[in-house]
Amino acid sequence: MPQPLEILIGSMLDHNIALAYILGMCPLIAISTSVRNAKGMGLAVIFVVTLTGIINYPIYLLLKRWNVEHLNLLVFIITIAATVQFLEMFIDKFFPKLYNAFGLFLPLITVNCVVLGVSLFFVNREYSFVETAAFSFGSGVGWLLAIVLLAGIREKMVNKSDVPKGLVGKGITFIVLGILALAFIGFTGLASIQ
Amino acid sequence: MRRKFIRMRYTKWFNISRDGLSRNNPIVIAVLGICSALAVTNRVENAIAMGAAVTFVIIASSLITSSIRSFIPTRVRMITYMVIISSLVIVVQMFLQAYFPNIYSALGAYVGLIITNCIVMGRNEAFAVKNPMKFTFFDGFANGLGYTYILILIAAVREILAFGTILNYQVLPDAWEGWVVMAIAPGGFFVLGILIWIIRDLTNNYDEEVTA
């Protein structure tokens, strides 16, 4: 398998960014109470992660050229905040229908660890541009997969299951996440990613 | 003595520390900043380093925010916090890189991810921007401590079960097989879920189910 394709599949399933690297937990827990909202948030994350990954890559090359790589955190977070702000205005203006579907979640994404995490991971792993793009998109899809699966389970669980009083809410969500993460370990070996 | 203690219970200091440490503990009750809490806690030493780093960033960033709170325009306050926090995180990152290279490589990208740790943002937005510096310092300290001790607790359980050691010092006999699952992500989820269960039952502080 060519390297970018391997990274794409690996980051969706095997090395899922939510279930293997435990990133983006705050929105994952907070928004997974209904499948509809989960889908909106997931789509917004795919969009923003892919875009910021692609934008941050040339910026990182530039930083490297000027020998100020240690500033990458500051620069990445400003890029992400600016991108999110711009996207929100752009979508609100030109695609009002799309804005209703996931525009509400856009401001929350600036502080979503997935977005910054993807940018930091491609630096650590020294990906090329195509690999970065594949990795960003794959991670977004993997996160969507995780939040929609979790929301589906939680929606079914609300009325029908008898959860111990102390576990209701956040507690049982973590147990479900643990079981989901175990299930995703079953994909190990599908694609090697490094 | 007793009267003095009762009077102390009504001071702001007492309330701030109780909020941070137990009643509104950032991890167990508010469930914020879970990413780093689970990703780095398979060894106790990583948990201590992460806890110290986050405590430093919370205290320093909320002190800065608090000292300039009357100059921050409301519309751009988020981005102001972001810039303050990320500059501090860069300092932490360089410090770890220089003095503790082993821990730095074990924590990896998660040091940088302190920026998006919701606790830091949350304390800036909920407390520092409205309160004077002396209370802010104390609030940051209480929340950082509340975060750190939960992290160490989770890490201790995971390290014992996964490797049979604490701080690389062997506590279980050689016959212990070691549960691999505790060293990877699912183990973290299970341990935190069970910890939340125990603490909520002990303190009678139950979560309400949110219906969709």
Structural notes for this entry:
The complex is a heterodimer of chains A (194) and B (212). By secondary structure, chain A is an all-alpha fold. Chain A is built from nine helices and no strands. Chain A has helices at residues 3-14, 25-31, 35-65, 72-94, 96-102, 106-109, 113-125, 129-160, 170-185. The longest helix of chain A has 32 residues, at 129-160. In chain A, 51% of the residues are buried. The model of chain A has no long low-confidence stretch (mean pLDDT 86). Chain B has one domain. Chain B has ten helices and two strands. A two-stranded antiparallel sheet of chain B has the order 1-2. In chain B, a hairpin with a 2-residue loop joins β1 (165-166) and β2 (169-170). In chain B, α4 (44-67) packs parallel to α7, α4 (44-67) packs antiparallel against α8 and α5 packs across α7 (118-128). Classes of the chains: A mainly alpha (194), B mainly alpha (212). The interface between A and B is large, with 49 and 49 residues.
General form of chain A: globular
Indicate the structural class of chain B: mainly alpha
Runs of chain A with pLDDT <50, length 5+? Answer: none
What's the quaternary structure here? heterodimer
How would you sum up the global shape of chain B?
Answer: globular
Short key terms for the protein model shown above:
heterodimer, A: 194 residues, mainly alpha, 9 helices, 75% helix, B: 212 residues
